[in-house]
């Protein structure tokens, strides 16, 4: 699947992130990390661009699924721009911190399902961007890791929390404490990657996966994501109450009426999205 974009957008004053809307995947948006000359190393301005792009996508009711991909042939994202970091004093680092947090939480808080298309290096903040997505597609060239302790910090883009939730305590600790890198096959075996595909196939597979998601009820999918996210850290009884609230949102929606009607009429649903 290699869709031609019907809409290519760069945000005002920003050239390191591009938003694509594929012609043959209605409802899918692609957020492209487009700082290829630096292997998508996250500078302050690049972080601002990511945060701005996620805000744009979150406000667009026509977006039903998002793919996060890379314009670089060699990397998904190599993490924080350490050359820039080397120029920052303590005050500069403090000022940078909320900008970076906005980038990672912008991806994490998108209300629609998100899929990371990972190839090449996904290290530090790059892996954390992928972990901020709901699903990760990795091709066989991918190398993943959280090496932050090797440069005197910790994974600060959600890595200590998101990796632990994905892999469990001991497997996450192995990666964080040793700063080691893993290949795509190990990532898939451990459950860090949800799909493992041949070299060069991550983007196409991620777009196909997003298109499958986007074909379903927008109300149902958004409500499912919200219930799963909110309920994950709740006790079972509280989680069931969260699920019930989400069920009530969908059960009395136009999407539910259309979905049941389409099933009985043996046709594809035309989701109203409300």
Automatic annotation (TrEMBL):
Its EC number is 4.2.1.17. It catalyses: a 4-saturated-(3S)-3-hydroxyacyl-CoA = a (3E)-enoyl-CoA + H2O; a (3S)-3-hydroxyacyl-CoA = a (2E)-enoyl-CoA + H2O. InterPro entries: ClpP/crotonase-like_dom_sf (IPR029045), Enoyl-CoA_hyd/isom_CS (IPR018376), Enoyl-CoA_hydra/iso (IPR001753), Enoyl-CoA_hydra_C (IPR014748). Keywords: Lipid metabolism, Lyase. It holds the Pfam family ECH_1. GO terms for molecular function: enoyl-CoA hydratase activity. This is enoyl-CoA hydratase.
């Amino acid at each position: 699947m290699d869709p031609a974009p019907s809409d290519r957008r760069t945000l005002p004053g920003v050239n390191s992130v591009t938003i694509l809307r594929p012609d043959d995947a209605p409802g899918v948006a692609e957020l492209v990390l487009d700082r290829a000359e630096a292997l998508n190393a996250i500078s302050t301005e690049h972080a601002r661009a990511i945060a701005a792009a996620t805000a744009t996508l979150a406000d667009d009711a026509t977006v039903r699924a998002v793919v996060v991909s890379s314009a670089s042939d060699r990397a998904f994202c190599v993490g924080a721009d350490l050359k820039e970091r080397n120029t920052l004093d303590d005050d500069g680092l403090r000022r940078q911190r909320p900008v970076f947090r906005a980038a990672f939480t912008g991806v994490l808080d998108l209300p629609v399902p998100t899929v990371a298309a990972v190839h090449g290096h996904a290290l530090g903040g790059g892996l954390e961007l992928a972990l901020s997505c709901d699903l990760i597609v990795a091709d066989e060239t991918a190398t993943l890791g959280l090496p932050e302790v090797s440069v005197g910090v910790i994974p600060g883009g959600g890595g200590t929390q998101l990796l632990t939730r994905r892999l469990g305590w001991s497997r996450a600790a192995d990666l964080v404490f040793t700063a080691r890198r893993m290949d795509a096959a190990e990532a898939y075996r451990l459950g860090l990657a949800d799909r493992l595909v041949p070299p060069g196939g991550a983007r196409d597979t991620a777009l196909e996966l997003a298109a499958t998601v986007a074909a379903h009820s927008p109300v149902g999918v958004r409500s499912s994501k919200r219930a799963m996210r909110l309920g994950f850290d709740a006790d079972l009884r509280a989680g069931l109450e969260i699920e019930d609230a989400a069920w009530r949102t969908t059960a009395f929606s136009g999407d539910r009426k259309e979905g049941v009607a389409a099933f009985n009429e043996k046709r594809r649903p035309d989701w109203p999205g409300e």
